[in-house]
Amino acid sequence: MSRTSGRACGKVILLGEHAVVYGVPAIAVGIERGARATVESLESGPSRLSMPAWKVETSTSDDTNDLGRALSAILEASGIDRPVAVEAHASLPPGGGLGCSAALGVAVARALDPRAAETETAERAMAWERVFHGNPSGIDAAVAARGGCVLFERGKSDGSSVCRIDPVRVRGGITLCLGSTGRASSTKTMVDAVARLKARRPEVVAKAFEGITSLVRNARLAIEAGDRLALGRLMDLNQMLLSGLFVSTQEIERLCDLARKAGALGAKLTGAGGGGCVAALVDGAHVADQVLEAWKGEGYDGFATSVAVAEPAPSRASEEVSP
Ligand code: PMV
């Protein structure tokens, strides 16, 4: 019986979440923690999905839960019509803003078809993502599939243009502390909340998106120049604009405050907000320890991750993929 496997990384959005849904560019990095999956052929159907760590068992015949529907969607997108058993594991908190569902989607897509190209795998994982998120920008799946640091720009939702993924050259590495509010959040709910605010107060949201656009452009330059001080400030400013979109919470603000006081260069929510995680930019392991200590002192869990980013290969210098 054939057995194939796949892996994917989690992601941290450094700047640009929410605005990215409306075509503003965002910058994200892949992190080591992620997801893995294995696929085995079955004699007869239906196809099954198990996630032992979460005590989840479902199948394509169970359309009462999102995971069952996501499995059907990704099998269809991958052109698999034989029955399979999929087992998946994630080392990311679900609803934590670290791209857990996209990492699972990419790991499953890879296990289903290990030879597929990176962009194709990310597209197939989007079929899985849409079940959970409704209107995902695609940034999570793109970063889960390729890792590294990228500037991501969504294509037009009417299909008239394609997503743009630009590798960003990181000078001097990036060390982040990721702190959890302890509250899972739903990306769909938060994206819907911003959509409602946009419908009610279009001028307020347009101004925020304008601000985020220039923060992202400057952040790219700061990352390429290895100017972590500037990057930290830009992250702080992005956090202010996200608070103005009502996606921050008291816990997020507290985690950011604790991190800055412990020496972080900047801190903001990452992902959808409304709970989930905060990303704090730190210079070196010593400051990382101080930030984690400060969080722990108030009962918040966290971990540090260094983003070692590979130099982009010339053939991957810039890519466009279908939305
Ligand atoms: O919370 P996450 O990891 O699903 O990230 C969501 C990022 C958003 O910009 C809020 C939504 C999206 O699809 O890009």
Structural write-up:
Helices cover 40% and strands 25% of the residues. The protein is α+β, with helices and mostly antiparallel strands and 323 residues long. The strands form two sheets. Strands 1, 2, 3, 4, 5, 6, 7 and 12 form an eight-stranded mixed β-sheet that branches. The chain has a four-stranded antiparallel β-sheet with strand order 9-10-8-11. β3 (48-51) and β4 (56-59) form a beta hairpin. α8 (250-261) crosses α9.
Short description:
With 323 residues, the chain is of the alpha+beta class. The protein has helices spanning 66-77, 100-112, 118-133, 139-146, 187-200, 202-225, 228-244, 250-261, 285-297; strands at residues 3-15, 26-41, 48-51, 56-59, 84-90, 149-153, 163-167, 174-180, 266-270, 277-282, 302-307, 319-321.
Count helical runs.
9
Most strands sheet: 8 strands, mixed
Structural class: alpha+beta
Helicity range: 25-40%
Order of helices and strands: EEEEHEHHHEEEHHHHEEHEE
Give the overall form. Answer: globular
Ligands bound to this protein structure: (3R)-3-hydroxy-3-methyl-5-(phosphonooxy)pentanoic acid
What proportion of the residues form beta strands (DSSP E)? 25-35%
| End-to-end distance | 35 Å
What is the arithmetic mean of pLDDT? 92
Unreliable parts: 310-323
The value of Rg in angstroms is: 19 Å
Count of extended strands: 12
SSE arrangement:
Blueprint: E1 3-15, E2 26-41, E3 48-51, E4 56-59, H1 66-77, E5 84-90, H2 100-112, H3 118-133, H4 139-146, E6 149-153, E7 163-167, E8 174-180, H5 187-200, H6 202-225, H7 228-244, H8 250-261, E9 266-270, E10 277-282, H9 285-297, E11 302-307, E12 319-321
Helix pairs in contact: 1-3, 2-3, 2-4, 3-4, 5-6, 6-7, 8-9
(3R)-3-hydroxy-3-methyl-5-(phosphonooxy)pentanoic acid binds at residues 17-18, 20-21, 97-99, 133, 136-137, 139-140, 187, 191, 271-272, 276.
